[in-house]
Design goal:
Elements lengths: L2 H50 L7 H8 L6 H35 L11 H16 L4 H24 L7 H25 L1 H11 L9 H19 L1 H7 L3 H6 L4 H23 L5 H13 L3 H26 L6 H18 L8
Helix pairs in contact: 1-3, 1-13, 2-3, 3-8, 3-11, 3-12, 3-13, 4-5, 4-6, 4-7, 4-11, 5-6, 5-11, 6-7, 8-11, 9-13, 12-13, 13-14
Length: 358
């Protein structure tokens, strides 16, 4: 056979294989989009359920009429002044925790990484303790400022220590540094609150992690930080896909790993600092949801980020609903997520494969 004929046959077979793979890829993407639509429907149901269910159940027509301003009775007051603010806060905090968890797992390559485990929540909490103890901070706006500053400084410190003296990010080293920094900051926070009883009384309610608010101010304060962090995560989606293949290969493909990691850390600080300031430390949401999203849409960050955006609030809202239904005095949402998250953490730790870098 002539050499030209071999090249013709080889090129034709390659085109045939590519054309055969294209419908499968298109079908897989369509299925992922349909799953995202289903997640959006479940989120809407969860939002309505958060308004209707609790220590006192309220019928759906009453909820709708209350939102439309057609009712002004006791049930309407419960919906508008209690459940609507906490539902909106649960939506924003869930988005923030889920996306920050996904970003941490993506830049570190560690499937067990999340803001709480890596000390980011501890840094935000320590900054709030400093504000309460030294400057008598009381307003939600100042809570956000201190929590964001603490989350940002802690993220940079963990990243700098983890990268010191090495060319590439070591996932095990990264998480060990985060745990160590978080433990130190938690110890400092405990010491400061024990030395200042007034600060302890103020901090212990905030540190429990709750969505129980009575007005929309805290949710509105959280909106800019969550929105900017989410947009930054969406912008980084393609770069995170390249980074998931390794820093060297990402650089070969034209990506800039250091810039991607730096911008991702900024987004993590925005999201985690805002969530911690608004609702207190809530753990395990950022650990569980990225793994669930990978099972739903795969490892493409162009689909992962929207999927996390939709599914993380579902988990947080239903955890809050369960806490309200089980105990009339309302079990804190952070406790419910811990009950769910601890078995998930054990299961992930026992797995031998790492879904963060496949």
């Amino acid at each position: 056979m002539l050499l030209s004929e071999r090249f013709f046959i080889h090129g034709r077979s390659a085109r045939v294989r590519k054309s055969a793979q294209q419908p499968a890829n298109d079908q897989s993407r369509r299925q992922s989009v349909l799953r995202l639509v289903l997640c959006a429907v479940v989120l809407v149901i969860s939002l309505v359920a958060s308004l209707a269910l609790g220590a006192k159940s309220i019928e759906w027509p009453v909820v709708v009429n209350s939102l439309l301003g057609n009712l002004h009775d006791a049930d309407s007051i419960i919906v508008l002044q209690s459940r609507l603010p906490r539902t909106l806060l649960g939506l924003l905090v869930g988005i923030a925790l889920g996306i920050s968890g996904l970003l941490i797992q993506s830049i570190s390559g560690n499937p067990l990484a999340e803001p709480g485990i890596l000390g980011v929540n501890a840094g935000a909490s320590f900054a709030v303790v400093l504000g309460i103890s030294l400057f008598s901070v009381h307003s939600p706006l100042l809570y956000w400022f201190y929590a964001f500053s603490g989350a940002m400084v802690t993220s940079l410190a963990v990243y700098a220590i983890g990268r010191f003296g090495v060319q590439q990010m070591d996932p095990v080293r990264f998480i060990l540094v985060g745990v160590a920094v978080g433990a130190v900051l938690t110890g400092f926070s405990s010491g400061l609150t024990l030395l200042n009883p007034a600060a302890f009384d103020q901090f212990r309610f905030w540190s429990a992690g709750s969505l129980d608010i009575r007005d929309l101010d805290r949710a509105l304060l959280a909106l800019p930080g969550v929105l900017s962090g989410t947009l930054l995560a969406l912008y980084l989606s393609r770069s995170l896909n390249a980074l998931s293949m390794g820093e060297e290969l990402a650089a070969t493909l034209g990506s800039r790993p250091l810039l991607t990691q730096s911008l991702a850390l900024l987004a993590i600080a925005l999201l985690c600092g805002t969530a911690t300031a608004a609702a207190g430390p809530i753990t395990f949401v950022g650990l569980m949801i990225p793994h669930l999203a990978r099972r739903i849409v795969g490892n493409d960050h162009l689909l992962l980020v929207p999927c996390v955006l939709l599914t993380a609030p579902i988990l947080l809202l239903w955890s809050d609903i369960v806490g309200r239904v089980i105990i009339a005095g309302e079990l804190r949402v952070s406790i419910v997520t811990a009950f769910i998250g601890a078995p998930v953490l054990i299961w992930l730790a026992r797995r031998q494969t790492s879904p963060g870098r496949q």
